[in-house]
Amino acid sequence: MAAVVIGIAAIVSSFPHISPTTTTTKRDVFTAIPITTAAMTSKTTSLNNNDDTNNDATTSSNSNNSNKPSIRWGIIGLGDVCTQKSGPAFYKCTGSTLVAVTRRTPGKAQQFADQFNTNTHTLALNNNNKCSGYETIDALLNHPGGLDAVYISTRPGTHYEICAQVAAAGLPCYVEKPVGRCAAETTAIVQLFQTARVPLFTAYISRAYDRTQAARTLLRNGRIGDTLRRVTYKLVGNGGARDMEGDVPWRLDASQSGGGLILDVGCHIIDRIRYICGPLIDVMGEAQNRNTPHSIVEDWVHFTATIGESASWAAMKNTKGATVDCVWDFGNKDGLDVGDILTIVGSNGSMTMTGTTNLQIFDIHGTLVEEQEFPMPEHTAQPLIQAVTDDLRGVRTSDVLSDGDAAMLPKGSWIRVLVIIMEAGKLGIGTGLTLGLDARNGSLVYLDLYWVTTYLLLVICILLLFWYGTALNEMLIDTTGTAGNYSNITIVSTTPYDL
Q1: 400-448, pLDDT tens digit by residue?
Q2: What are residue 414's phi and psi, to 5 degrees?
Q3: What is the per-residue pLDDT for 85?
Q4: Which residue has the higher pLDDT, 449 or 467?
């Protein structure tokens, strides 16, 4: 790709949120995708680096836990993600009670509640509190017994309107990732809760895994040296994404998901890199549709970055200047072996996190010196939901929490989208485009190949007409004799930016 990209750059100062009723599956020409955003900036404090026995995720606690009332949760959306990954955690976590549910399919919420209430074991775990099923979100928010917090487990395309209702009700919210389908929509959601002055938490669950916390502790203790050199990541395959059946699964429908699997799967690893290593700067990237002809979203993504100033939350002391290189090959056009590996290289060794359970330490010569396995929780979101519940109860504050407190900080404090998605244009061609950036709002710019090509051809035709001195030359001269304005043709630089 050339150092510059010629295109039509009608740069705007802000992006309106995408309406949940949008029917098109093609994103706007200028868009940004919230892989991670300020909505999930970690709430951190300095860690006690001298206390090796300290839980790296816990920053403060209150010993009078038993005197704190339980959090009464309501759940909006009862799909697979909720029932398997998250749902049971709301009645299994300490200090947490599930009291109300709703689902868009008529009768399904009541069916869930009936099954829940007739299971004596489940009721016992739920402090003998029954769960009510509601047909609408308004009915759930007006649950007679009262609610303390709401979990939103619906598709991203519905998040804005549902979050608006929850924020208006004055209730804290734990929402599935991505928060919104683009950076502007995500920012709008964050602002809803800031205006209501209630917490917003995001479901970046890998932060709270035992493996992630063990990795942070090992790095903090200098297991691979005191200086971070580089971070690499490669995924081949769909990364365990659910609900991929059908011609165009909803996760590949931009109107519902915001884009391809990079939003559903890739967001976790980008968040984990930032959580472990620190902020990303000098970010550049590209995305392509290489092997998914039935979809117009990306199936291959690559980005590079640099770790910025060493952050208080980073697990190593010296991280500034380390390089980051990540590739997601969801389409697997080349038939490679399926794999998922994050590598962190330090000044005296390296660490790998392979799949969902494995962690290995290598010495400076590449010899394996330590290996650990960390079984996944039965309900993968339970550790994070416990941390959210503890925070809401005032029992414990943890740095694994991902919230919207810093949403309005300058863009340098945000991790926005790291790639531009060049979707299949009207010519039916899927391709990739090196990213540019709108410097006024920190949002990445997406350029449609069809329109780029069209305008380039138009410019060539105009130049040829000028060259031959045709009548068009006279038409493009204004009344003062000044040549016509070509400000709509803009060169978009691919200079890297801090995100």
Answers
A1: 998 654 332 333 333 333 333 333 222 222 333 333 333 223 333 334 4
A2: -105, 150
A3: 87
A4: 467
Partners of 61 in the beta sheet?
396
Taking the C-alpha atoms of residue 411 and residue 409, their distance in angstroms, rounded to an integer, is: 6
Helix or strand holding residue 354 (H, E)? strand 349-354
Q: 458 or 447, which is more confident? A: 458
CA atoms within 13 A on the CB side of 258: 34
Find the helix or strand (DSSP H, E) in which 207 lies.
none
Phi, then psi, of 196 in degrees rounded to 5: -75, -10
The C-alpha atoms of residue 332 and residue 238 are separated, in whole angstroms, by: 9
CA distance 72 to 148: 5
CA distance readout (Å), 237 to 229, 285, 292, 307, 366: 27, 20, 12, 27, 26
Sheet of 402-403, strands arranged across: 41-42, 402-403, 200-202, 173-175, 149-152, 71-76, 96-102, 132-134
3-state secondary structure of 473: helix
Summarised one tens digit per residue, pLDDT across range 204-254 is: 999 999 999 999 999 999 999 999 999 999 999 876 666 666 666 877 888
Question: CA torsion angle for 200, 206, 210, 212 (degrees, to 10)?
Answer: -110
Cis peptide before 20 (omega within 30 of 0): no
Task: Quote the CA–CA distance of 393 and 148 in Å, as a whole number.
Answer: 10
Place of tokens 């860690």: 47
Place of tokens 């165009």: 248
CA dist 148 and 171 (Å) reads 6
**Four-residue CA torsion sign, 397, 403, 409, 410:** positive
Could you please report the per-residue DSSP string of 78-121? Answer: -SHIIIIIITTHHHHSTTEEEEEEE-SSTTHHHHHHHHHHT-HH
What would the DSSP string read from start to end of 407-430? TTS-GGG------------TTS--
Contact 121, 128 (CB under 8 A): no
Report yes or no: 86 and 95 within 8 Å, Cβ to Cβ: no
Helix and strand counts by DSSP (H, E) for the chain: 14, 22
- Both tokens of 129, joined, read 């509190």
Tokens 């949008």 -> residue: 22
